[in-house]
Amino acid sequence: MEYSRVEKIIYWWRYKSYFINQSEKYEYSGTEQDSILIVLPDGEVAFDLANLFLEKIQYNETRIHFLVKDALINFYPKELSESALLFSYKDINSLGVPTNEFVKKIKELKYENMIDLNINFSRFSSFLLRACHPKVRMGFNYDNSKKYYNVILDTNYQRDLEGTFNMIQQFIKI
Question: Most exposed of 3, 104, 127, 145 (fewest Cβ within 10 Å)?
Fold first, then answer.
């Protein structure tokens, strides 16, 4: 998605503090067990991918949460809804990025790994991952992905869900 010139200026002015230090170090201690936030997209593939994650990580001690739109939570399995963090249109500002309050709320949960499973650019999820400064910011390859993620996944996502899970598993302990 392309920003207009006015949106770029507003975006830069409001959020420049999040992008000042590109080499910012991971700021959370390693004493906590691994924690993962998975941002699920709005499409049908998200349901299959969520089921795959639940099936594969059922007996692991890793703390995993799914970020889901509140209007879609009823379509997911009960196991996922128990570990879901919900967001609504109130958590998204006029530029399509998360509000400062929502970013603070997610930052307080101190996730070490954050995964954006949107195959196409999503202002909300990509900015959220960048603003929270987790150890691993993982997302799929598109035009601006290097600005937002430090681990970029191949886009074979819609064809091979098992392969996508294996790629993610290579970078983080699941």
Answer: 104
Give me the sign of the Cα torsion angle 95, 100, 102, 108.
positive
- Give 7-22 pLDDT, tens digit per residue: 767 766 666 666 555 4
The pTM score is 0.79
Distances 128 to 18, 20, 38, 44, 147 between C-alpha atoms, Å? 10, 15, 12, 22, 12
Determine the length of the chain: 174
Instruction: Report the largest interatomic distance among the alpha carbons of the chain, rounded to a whole angstrom.
Output: 48
Structural domains of the chain, with CATH: 34-171 (3.40.50.2000)
Nearest to 27 by CA among 111, 93, 94: 111
